[in-house]
Sequence to fold (98 residues):
Amino acid sequence: MAAVVAAILRDPTARIGQVYELTGPQALDITGLAEQYWESGELASIGLSAHVAQHIATMARLHRNGRYDRGTDDVERIIGRRPQTVEQYIASNPHLFY
Fold:
């Protein structure tokens, strides 16, 4: 933004009466902004490879869009018993959460 102000101040008479819409190179809603912050900031800062970071970002996007909102009996069929709920897991592993 400072470069825009500097350019206008260098030659203000040529800009009299002009109206400018100062935007970036793309329009982003708050979700898009958060995605870019998370992908380029948070995921990049922990040293993940680009492939793994992209995979995690895609999983997060799918989760946000409800693609993982379903239950199955696959775990029970594989291990022969019902899986723990999140509440049960936390209760049996408090050292991981407190």
User: Anything to note?
Assistant: The chain has a mean pLDDT of 83.
